[in-house]
Amino acid sequence: MINRRSFSKALGVGTGAAAVSLAGLRAASAASTVPTVTPGAHAAFPQLKQIRAGLLDVGYAELGPAHGPVVICLHGWPYDIHSYVDVAPLLAEQGYRVIVPYLRGHGTTRFLSDRTFRNAQQSAIALDVIALMDALKIERAVLAGFDWGSRTADIVAALWPERCKALVSVSGYLVTNLEANLKPLSPQAEHAWWYQYYFSTERGRLAMEDKTLRHDLTRLVWDTVSPTWDFDDATFERTAAAFDNPDYAAVVIHNYRWRLGLADGERRYDGFEKRLAARPVIEVPTLTLDAERDPFTAPGDGASYRDRFTGAYEHRTLPGIGHNVPQEAPTAFAQAVIDVHHLLDK
Question: Which positions make up the signal peptide (predicted)?
């Protein structure tokens, strides 16, 4: 929570930090309205940072006052930290310390050892976030994400609630159940997942290792899952540069094959995966977002996952928005982060 001490430390960072009320988080979350920003208003982050955390040397962007309440924003596939290039400044101007890391296999994040298995099962990625928080000496943070980022944030909130102050999760509860994933979905839903099955083949793996084919495949995904987003070529190319990471293909292929039971995880994560298979509830304050034009958004306005959130809760649907919610609707996403703090008082 923003208290008088952290507020005073935030002074001098900028007018945005001073906008946080001295009355503390309750007043700020109840009254703060994020200024509207046009998607694409920002093209880049300030200079990136690197830190050793767990198995990785993590590349990340950081904005906002050093002593502000922490928000960790987690990207998905095929995306990178630029999904939050407009969100992060909005939150920093409200006095938050915003951390946006490259996930394993993306951008400037690297494995510390060549001998480490390029594993992308869900609990391994979640533990990367815990390791990053430990390395940065962050005890608790608001976690916010979409796609892989939603799943990762959900898992941290479910298994380590003491590290998660509150949660913003696009598409709600995305914890993978391997047994359930063996069952077919409706043909329309299966169609949206075409690349998941492509990656199950050797041809799909080779395509991800080929820079030109990888570029064209990921661009096709952007076009199809965000049908109303009018982004330009430069916006895509900024993110596509993160796919040149030497471990990108291995991480992506393992993630999707593991989900379908076609690739093994590591035994050291078995205990976590067993707990996740039981679909644990999330007790921390949560705000879920559904994107109306996202082909992966489940019908029912969040009803399919409502029972997984047992704490203070709010749900919103974003009309006309596709899969990459923070980049397509940065104002709404940043507002959700601020508003989820208000749920702490309910």
Answer: 1-30
Residue-wise pLDDT for 113-150, tens only, equals: 999 999 999 999 999 999 999 999 999 999 999 999 99
Q: Is the peptide bond before 330 cis (omega within 30 degrees of 0)?
A: no
Amino acid at site 261: G
The values of phi and psi at residue 183, to 5°, are -90, 140
Which residue, 86, 82, 140, 123, is CA-closest to 106? Answer: 82
End-to-end CA distance of the chain: 14
Between the CA atoms of 246, 251, 254 and 259, what dihedral angle is there, to the nearest 10 degrees?
-160
- DSSP state string for 145-156: ESTHHHHHHHHH
3-state DSSP assignment of residue 211: helix
Q: How many angstroms separate the CA atoms of 145 and 2, rounded?
A: 22
pLDDT per residue as tens digits for the range 215-259: 999 999 999 999 999 999 999 999 999 999 999 999 999 999 999
Helix or strand (DSSP H, E) at 164 = strand 164-170
Q: Give me the sign of the Cα torsion angle 71, 124, 203, 174.
A: negative
H or E element at residue 291: strand 286-291
Residues in the chain: 346
Instruction: Give the sign of the dihedral formed by CA 272, CA 284, CA 252, CA 181.
Output: positive
- Helix %, strand %, coil % for the chain, to 5? 45, 15, 40
Q: What's at 19, amino acid-wise? A: A
Give dist(CA 342, CA 27) in Å, integer. Answer: 8
Please, what is the angle between helix 270-277 and helix 148-159, to 10°? 90
Distance between CA atoms of residues 287 and 27, nearest Å = 18
**101 DSSP β-pair partners:** 60
Residue 307 is classified by DSSP as G
What's the burial of 139, exposed, middle or buried (CB within 10 Å: 0-12/13-18/19+)?
exposed
Contact 40, 76 (CB under 8 A): no
User: Which helix H or strand E contains 333, and what residues bound it?
Assistant: helix 330-342
